[in-house]
Structures are given as structure tokens and as C-alpha cells.
Amino acid sequence: FFFLMIRRPPRSTQSRSSAASDVYKRQVVSTQSTWGPNFKIKFQVENLTQSPMLNLGVTYDYDFSVFKMRKLCHSIPCLIPKIGYPFEIELMNIDPNGTADVIKIYVSEKNKVTPLICAQINMPMSELPLD
């Protein structure tokens, strides 16, 4: 079970006193399960602010020599406050030794480089197939 919440002042806020009362809050909660070299990661992105967030993207970063994933990005057209947006991704450990590694999840505004929130999931070693 993984949990991450980041608080950050709005970009337009210049003073620290007003930033403390008005913060952006986002949350990512995830779980993982495994069967052989295949993994399933379930996670939920939630907007903890009072305003909806539009046109968000979810991207993943990982070592392509260790894991293989079908889809590298997802869209969130509208993230309504206090309602979770669930995701389920499947990936396969393609390393012959079943190496453990990290999967990074980034949620960002479309066409922006800086993520709004990120999560790091430490993946366990894969079970090796029986020969």
C-alpha cells in the first residue's frame, strides 16, 4: 500500500503567508500484485482541492530493459474534487534475472514539463519461470 500527498502553493502566489492558507493538494494511492513475471499496479489519483483540474496526463518512467508496459500514458480529462480517478496498469518483468526496480508515476498538466505530483513504487523481484 503506497500513499503520497504533496502540498504546493499556487504559482501566482508570491507571499508565504497567503500560500499557507491556499494550497494545491493531490493524492496518489496504489497497490501492487504479482503472478510470475507479470505485475498489476492499481492506483488512484485524487484532487483534494475545491476546484476541478482539467486536462491532466499520467506518465510512467521505468527501466525499459527490466519492465515492459503496454501503455505509457493516460489522460484525465477532468479531476473532480474529492473523487478518486482509478487506474490499473499491467506490466511484465522482462529481465532474465527478475530484477527488482522502481516505477515512477507522474501526474502533470498537458503540455507542461513539471509534474503536479509524482509517486515512486519500489517493485519487488519477479518470480522466475520454472524450467
Could you write a compact summary of the structure shown?
The chain has 131 residues and is mainly β. 5% of the residues lie in helices and 56% in strands.
Tell me about this structure.
Helices cover 5% and strands 56% of the residues. With 131 residues, it is mainly β. The longest helix is centred in the N-terminal third of the chain and has 6 residues, at 16-21. The radius of gyration is 17 Å and the shape is elongated.
Enumerate how many helices there are, as a single number.
1
N-to-C CA distance: 32 Å
Question: Mean pLDDT, nearest integer?
Answer: 77
| Structural class estimated from helices and strands | mainly beta
Low-confidence parts: 1-26
Neighbour order of strands in the largest sheet: 1-2-3-7-5
**Approximate strand percentage:** over 45%
Radius of gyration: 17 Å
Dominant shape: elongated
Largest sheet: 5 strands, antiparallel
Ordered list of secondary-structure elements with their pairings:
Elements: E1 2-8, H1 16-21, E2 24-35, E3 38-47, E4 53-61, E5 67-69, E6 73-79, E7 84-93, E8 101-109, E9 117-123
Antiparallel strand pairs: 1-2, 2-3, 3-7, 4-6, 4-8, 5-7, 8-9
